[in-house]
Amino acid sequence: MGTEIQFVKYQGAGNDFVLVDMREIETELNDGIRKAMCDRRFGIGADGVLVILNSAIAHFKLVYYNSDGCLSSLCGNGSRCCLAYYLSMSQCKDSSIRFECNGSIYEGGHVKENIYQLNMKDIETADIVTVDKDNFYINTGSPHHVRYVNGLHHKDIRALGLKVRTESYGKEGCNINFCEELSDGKLKVRTYERGVEDETLACGTGATAVALVTHQRLKIMKEDSINSCFSYVILMPGGTLTVKFVATAKLFSNIYLIGPALRVFTGVYNI
Known about the structure:
Layout: E1 4-12, E2 15-21, H1 31-38, E3 48-53, E4 60-66, H2 76-89, E5 97-101, E6 104-112, E7 115-119, E8 123-124, E9 129-132, E10 135-139, E11 143-148, H3 157-169, E12 175-181, E13 187-193, E14 198-200, H4 204-217, E15 228-236, E16 239-247, E17 251-260, E18 262-270
Parallel strand pairs: 2-3, 4-5, 11-12, 13-15
Antiparallel strand pairs: 1-2, 1-18, 3-4, 5-6, 6-7, 7-17, 8-17, 9-10, 10-11, 12-13, 13-14, 15-16, 16-17
């Protein structure tokens, strides 16, 4: 009989994850096991694996792996799911939870009901790369390409995303976000994620990328806009995310990714 691994299935706006709390588990998961866990036909099924470890400098450490089983960068929705899990499993009364991820410390917490927020790292406006009037690049903890389109609903995101990812970003890859600006100011977004190599129902760092790029694209940046707060509603196939931030001509700060994070089920995986 194989080793049993306890897991929890979480989703944030349809972006789903297998969460494994390894703080008291000595068994190691390799790339093959994580990939098998994410398989939607022969495994649990997920866009990625969230591994929680002990931390000496924060409440916990998060290591994120894409559905291909390989180590990845920051996952916004996954981070919010980990915050929801940690708060549900601990007696912690802190209003803000700190966790390690990719060598940095992030903070976040509970907002209301099933809504959780993640405080992202500050980003300089100069770090947004303009490819042309409709295409941009930004790193919000993970690399993102943002392309503005019309008729988003009819686009073949998998084919288009793979084309941009392969032709423009090579082996390392990039997440490709397709955005349509709606008349009410909301942004409709669909994302092709590297490592998943397909469209996902939502992407947190992608929603953040779209909000910041859109803000700069609309040329709202002014020298006298210090401490001006802005909010963008991002409509993704799996649900709605909100991105709030303070913007000046040179810096995006106090960036918050806000949205749902829900436990779907718990289970045991045999390896």
